[in-house]
């Protein structure tokens, strides 16, 4: 169920862990926890695998903003088992799609991979069940209900818990878990992939990284917060983010069911009802669509530049495109801006990442960077 939900719509980091101060500035608390941790690690060893750290940070973000979680996921070891379960499911889904015998549910269930998938699913379900149970328990408290009434906006889980179907009944436990599973999974893993690869792209293109940093410094000084208005005032940084998303799309491909037959220019056709895979990674690296596609060139996204409307699809496209596209871009901007103010990103030439397609784009050998704290 979650696999088809995931492929139908890419929703990366739809909520931002942003807190408003009286001045209207924004503080990204989960990112600040990560950066503080990085400062301590850099003092011991300047090389670090960033994907796992960023994954915990993005899970921390979605837990705080969508599910009313208190505390820090990054400082609590128990969440590492959930992260591992998601990683296992990423690999297992991909391997299942490529094995014709595993398309049969009975065969798959008795296979070693099927047993691993079942175990990982159970762990993921247990995690989301606990999140729902905890929030339900909190809402039994009158003080918590009063706080909820004063909220400017309800978070995702609160909306679900108070939702009513057409028959007047609330969502069933099964329906609740399905929605929470989807947002929990898609709200952190895709964003972690996007941020990690953007950092790598900037590390391997220092001249562009420095230009971004100068732009951000001129806008924010040495501050550690951003206003909503600031997010629209970093054009070059935005161009670099988009170019990194082109080269390293967080979701390398999606599946679609054809609602009508498709006939190609060479006469071949596909019938209605079949499932097709669309490769965004292939599209973004197609020399017929992008000139010198392997070259990092942010000018492709300069204001006024022209390109086909469907040549760049990091958030899919059409009726089922990402409903959180704008939120996701804002989260990426905040992560890049505040990180470049504190660190210089440098590649590790001894461990060049090898992209591998899973549900999200990952690296076979991790993404290792040198982090140099700026004075």
Automatic annotation (TrEMBL):
The keyword Oxidoreductase applies. This is Uncharacterized protein. Residues 1-21 form the signal peptide. It holds the Pfam family p450. GO terms for biological process: arachidonate metabolic process; icosanoid biosynthetic process; kidney development; lauric acid metabolic process; linoleic acid metabolic process. GO terms for molecular function: alkane 1-monooxygenase activity; arachidonate monooxygenase activity; heme binding; iron ion binding; oxidoreductase activity, acting on paired donors, with incorporation or reduction of molecular oxygen, reduced flavin or flavoprotein as one donor, and incorporation of one atom of oxygen. The keyword Metal-binding applies. Gene3D superfamilies: Cytochrome P450 (1.10.630.10). Its cofactor is heme. Keywords: Endoplasmic reticulum, Heme, Iron, Membrane, Metal-binding, Monooxygenase, Oxidoreductase, Signal. It is found in: Endoplasmic reticulum membrane. GO terms for cellular component: endoplasmic reticulum membrane. Transmembrane segments: none annotated. The lineage of its organism: Eukaryota, Metazoa, Chordata, Craniata, Vertebrata. InterPro entries: Cyt_P450, Cyt_P450_CS, Cyt_P450_E_grp-I, Cyt_P450_sf, Cytochrome_P450_Monoox. Heme binds at residue 322. Belongs to the cytochrome P450 family.
